[in-house]
Amino acid sequence: MKSKIHPSAIVDAKAEIDSNVEIGPFCIIKGGVKIKKGTKLLSNVIVEGITEIGENCVFHPFTSIGFRPQDLKYKAEETRLVVGNGNIVREYTSIHRASVGGDSVTSIGDNNFLMAYVHVAHDCKIGSNVILTNAATLAGHIVVEDHAYIGGVVAIHQFTRIGRYAMVGGFSGIGQDIPPYMIAAGARAKLFGPNTIGLQRHGFSEKTINEIKKAYKILFREKRTLKDALKRVQEEFPSSTEVRHIVEFIEKNKRGICR
């Protein structure tokens, strides 16, 4: 099946548009863009740069994809944006390609939901099954692991990491890493404990959730040094994959851990 391209759309001759792609009215595709089958650009979508978009994505009106990064160090180096499969990107969202100083790739995984007015800056690494609610703003070099939920009007500082299955409440400012499986919120965010309801909804067992709760208490509620607390949870839960991930996440932090 041939691509369906509206007569008012402008598509660069260098772009590679796969079969069964729909490009709606007033869309603009500039440069070496690659779009795989089943993806839809509804209308007024602009895609440029070295940008690769996977299968069965939907881009709503007035989204800006693959634009040059908002970074004064960037001098038109060849950098990329890679978007996976099954993503939904709502109105007025912007996703920028990478800058210099990293691996030159901004990446977004599969089956993510980016609501209206979301901004994903250069060099971000977004996993899969992530929800970014309206006006969530991600600065450069941010990592968001799988199944994380970011509330509305949240601002996240450069180089910060959000762990898997974590939930960040709306109107929060995130300046330090949010550990996996936790809830955080606040103008200067702090932890409020494990994301129990979210974990239950995703099918985590009661045993696993209890292990995460106990690990949280040892790490963040008992009067221990972080080094001692990490050692304690490893000794107490040697076979827990989830607790091991929390420990590894904390050990790799560079900006500090939200407490």
From TrEMBL:
Main localization category: cytoplasm
Keyword terms, alphabetized: Acyltransferase, Cytoplasm, Lipid A biosynthesis, Lipid biosynthesis, Lipid metabolism, Repeat, Transferase
Reactions catalysed, as given in the entry: a (3R)-hydroxyacyl-[ACP] + UDP-N-acetyl-alpha-D-glucosamine = a UDP-3-O-[(3R)-3-hydroxyacyl]-N-acetyl-alpha-D-glucosamine + holo-[ACP]
Localization: Cytoplasm
UniProt cross-references to SUPFAM superfamilies, sorted A to Z: Trimeric LpxA-like enzymes
Any one cellular-component term (Gene Ontology): membrane
Alphabetical list of PANTHER family matching this protein: ACYL-[ACYL-CARRIER-PROTEIN]--UDP-N-ACETYLGLUCOSAMINE O-ACYLTRANSFERASE (PTHR43480), ACYL-[ACYL-CARRIER-PROTEIN]--UDP-N-ACETYLGLUCOSAMINE O-ACYLTRANSFERASE, MITOCHONDRIAL-RELATED (PTHR43480:SF1)
Name used for this protein in its record: Acyl-[acyl-carrier-protein]--UDP-N-acetylglucosamine O-acyltransferase
UniProt organism field: Candidatus Sulfobium mesophilum
Underlying gene: lpxA
